[in-house]
Design a protein that fits this description.
With about 400 residues, this protein is α/β, with parallel strands linked by helices. The protein has 12 helices and 12 strands. Helix 5 links the parallel strand 2 and strand 3. The longest helix is centred in the last third of the chain and has 33 residues. The N and C termini lie far apart (about 60 Å). The protein binds pyridoxal-5'-phosphate. Its cofactor is pyridoxal 5'-phosphate.
């Protein structure tokens, strides 16, 4: 069967990368290998661990199929598959941080990443400092002799500031720090972090790769320099994912390109329309020309996904809750990247550097695969309730 020779388009790669059907009697999908024990043919092979698979925690044909497909998308030397997006954040941080290190994390980071840094990392003797998402090359002023990691996430969780990743990566590299990026929003279809100087690219595969709100998974992909240490940390922690979940994400990946294109178009149409609606002070979506970081987004990203926020024109928490309670199609639920639309109230009280919008309360929207006209009608119900 034809294999990717480097010329394939993105949807061809999503459809075929990973496993080779000829390895499994022609079945197009790989088997779901449930495994702890792997048998060895003799003592010498066992002593030398000289066979491809050695133990369930260290990889199976199922995890290899997904990791290979992700490597192809990310351009990485290797990918680990872990049980959640949050584990995809914590495992590399644990693999690379040591007591006495200084770690720089963007202030607009996904809240559980901050919680992990403020609790476990600090307890392990790591100094944690948050930086402004607009710091750019100015990050060099924050880098110390013991800075070992710069952790980025762009666009920002909930407020969607875009970071100058190449400038940050250049300054971090010059100081010998490892650059990690949570790239969940863009997926490797709209940004390939390793092409911009990032060393370790992180995904909550729970979102667009899974795509159906029924599975939790994370992937972490590293360049040649960082792969060995990342893999060593992964094996040491024993943080492997269950085979059914891995299979579900590989299955989701096959259709991710067409789903994402639909999310992209619908979200952009709705975001543009929301800008003109009474009761909306601002729409925080980096693909809108009105977004302060739009030029940076255009320079580095090749598309936008389906998650963005709106800032209501006043109304406080009462207006925010009225908006949310009036919605009938949008569900009130965390996570995103699934087929269904969701809305959440945004809390920004944890930030220490990045400023929260001041015009009114913030609501994050995940635009699903429903018809845009129905979603607009639902949002009008929310806006009417908020202003009532
Ligand atoms: C940017 C980002 N990273 C990581 C995660 C964690 O993913 P999971 O829910 O699979 O733990 C999330 C979840 O919302 C997220 O939004």
């Amino acid at each position: 069967m034809a294999r990717n020779d480097g010329t394939w388009g993105i949807n061809t790669r999503l459809a075929h990368d990973g496993n080779d059907p000829s390895d499994y009697f022609g079945f197009v999908n790989p088997p779901v290998v449930h495994a702890s024990t792997v048998l060895y043919p003799n003592a010498a092979t066992m002593a030398g661990r000289s066979q491809k698979y050695t133990y369930g925690t260290r990889g199976t044909p199922t995890t290899d199929a997904l990791a290979t497909a992700i490597d192809s998308l990310e351009g990485s030397a290797g990918t680990i598959v872990v049980p959640s997006g949050l584990a995809a954040v914590t495992v590399p941080l644990l693999a690379f941080a040591a007591a006495g290190d200084h770690v720089l994390i963007v202030d607009s980071v996904y809240h559980p990443t901050r919680h992990f840094a403020d609790t476990m990392l600090k307890r392990l003797g790591v100094e944690v400092e948050y930086y402004d998402p607009h710091v750019g090359a100015g990050i060099s002023k924050l880098i110390k002799a013991n800075t070992s990691i710069v952790f980025t996430e762009s666009p920002a969780s909930n407020t969607f500031e875009v970071q100058d990743i190449p400038a940050i990566a250049k300054a971090a590299k010059a100081a010998g720090a490892v650059v990690m990026m949570d790239n969940t929003w863009a997926t490797p279809l709209y940004l390939k972090p390793l092409d911009y100087g990032v060393d370790v690219s992180i995904h909550a595969a729970t979102k667009y790769p899974g795509g159906h709100s029924d599975v939790l998974l994370g992937t972490v992909s590293a360049n040649e320099t960082c792969w060995e240490r990342l893999h060593e940390g992964f094996v040491t922690l024993g943080c492997c994912a269950g085979p059914d979940d891995v299979y579900q994400v590989l299955r989701g990946l096959r259709t991710m390109g067409v789903r994402l294109e639909h999310h992209r178009k619908s979200a952009l149409e709705i975001a543009t329309w929301l800008e003109a609606q009474p009761g909306v002070a601002r729409v925080l979506h980096p693909a809108l020309p009105s977004h302060p970081d739009h030029a940076l987004w255009r320079r580095d990203f090749s598309g936008s996904s389906g998650v963005f926020s709106i800032v209501l024109a006043g109304g406080g928490q009462k207006g925010q809750h009225a908006f949310l309670d009036a919605l009938t199609i949008f569900g009130l639920g965390y996570s995103w990247g699934g087929y269904e639309s969701l809305a959440v109230p945004v809390f920004l009280g944890d930030r220490v550097v990045a400023k929260a919008p001041e015009e009114g309360p913030v609501i994050r929207l995940q635009i699903g695969l429903e018809d845009v006209a129905d979603l607009k009608a639902d949002l009008l119900r929310g806006l009417a309730a908020a202003s009532a």
